[in-house]
Amino acid sequence: MSDQQVRVRFAPSPTGKLHVGGARTAIYNWAFARANDGVFILRIDDTDPTRSTDENTQIILRAMRWLGLDWDEGPEVGGDFGPYKQTERLDLYRQAAQKLWDEGRAYPCFCTADELSAIREEQENGGAAITGYFGKWAKCRSLSFEEQKRRIEAGEPYVLRFRSEGDENKRIVFDDLIRGKIEMPENIIDEVLLKSDGVPTYHFAHVCDDHFMRTTHVIRGEEWISSVPKHIALFKACGYRVPKYAHTPQVMKTDETDGTKRKLSKRKDPEASVSYFAQSGYPKEALTEYIMTLLNSNFEDWRRANKTADIFSFPFNLKKMSVSGCLFDLAKLNDISKNVISVMTADEVYERTLEWAKEYDDEYYTVLSENESKAKLMMNLDRGGK
Ligand code: GLU
After folding, report:
1. Which of 266, 284, 374, 386 is labelled catalytic?
2. 21-59: buried (b, 16+ CB within 10 Å) or exposed (e) per residue?
């Protein structure tokens, strides 16, 4: 593997189904890997044990397969940098955290949940611009070695915190491949690295993963932009190379009730989950194709000129991506679906419908399989058949 090879990852947390926004991030990563002869990694970010389930992981893998997003490394396919599930990588995080601790870049914090909420309350009441564990609030930061040792040996629970060296008057600048230069204040918070049960926080785990999995580009949703200063500080403290970043805009929809634009919501919108389209019988190509149109402004022109080309031969370019949130347009997706189905042969329509019915509609499945030739004749109407 050359040092330059593009390695990207899609890292869903299995706390729910695959959301359309998640699918879009997955497709971006996948298309970027394919366009650059790179490697597409699927990683399961399951460090939140209360909300992650194996069932959701299976639903996500299934939705990814349904969409035709094959991963080169990850669950069920393996790879040289696995395991690809965070809960199977706990030793690695603990070793990385221990190294930071040995180097004085991490420290044990014994503050209880009550003490932490008292700090937060005091900060909020005082109108603090930044809330969290830092500066004068970070009282465990200055405990002596003897005291740390005594309290640990006495069995007091503790978390391991990052010893931030950030300065609130300084700014960091990073180059986002979609948005250009972004400037933000340095991180000054002493973030938790390992919780009291030794499980890492997401912030810390993903930094270790992206380093050890040799991720070159982090392409993910824009909700992560505000965490970048924290992530860069962690990469640097660990001595890891900072990956390149690309933060994708949110998927929006027009609310039917009042016509306003809002974020596509997992809770309110059935069409927010990929499985909705699988269940409703959309051809998967239509969804990927549609998402590609949201992705690059020149995709539609390319498609018109390359009607039957494989989607992964599209010369994907992060710079051509829109920065503002894009609107999920069901009518357009329906239109694309219609086009996709119209170029299929009757045999293909039959096979695909049968496959769908087998999973979602027993009665229809029986009718279709018992009347194959009749069904195909009907499906061939206007496709060359009389
Ligand atoms: N597990 C995170 C999520 O589900 C991934 C964030 C990232 O890609 O770094 O949003």
Report:
1. 266
2. bbbbbbbbbbbbbbbbebbbbbbbbbbeeeebeeebbeb
Query: Is a pLDDT exceeding 90 seen at residue 264?
Result: no
Instruction: Say how many Å lie between the CA of residue 1 and the centre of ligand 1.
Output: 25
Can 376 be counted among the known catalytic residues?
A: no
pLDDT in tens, 181-208: 999 999 999 999 999 999 999 999 999 9
Distance CA 181, CA 159 (A): 35
Q: Count how many residues are written for the chain.
A: 386
Give CA separation, 181 vs 184, 320, 326, 338, 365, in Å: 10, 16, 21, 40, 54
Q: What are the phi and psi torsion angles at 135 (to 5°)?
A: 50, -135
Find out whether the beta carbon of 243 lies less than 6 Å from any atom of ligand 1. Answer: no
pTM of the model: 0.89
CA dihedral angle for residue 224, residue 225, residue 227, residue 233, rounded to 10 degrees: 130
**pLDDT of the residue at 197:** 94
Q: How many helices (H) and strands (E) does the chain have?
A: 14, 12
pLDDT tens readout for residues 4-29: 799 999 999 999 888 888 998 999 89
Looking at the CA of residue 25, tell me the nearest atom of ligand 1: 8
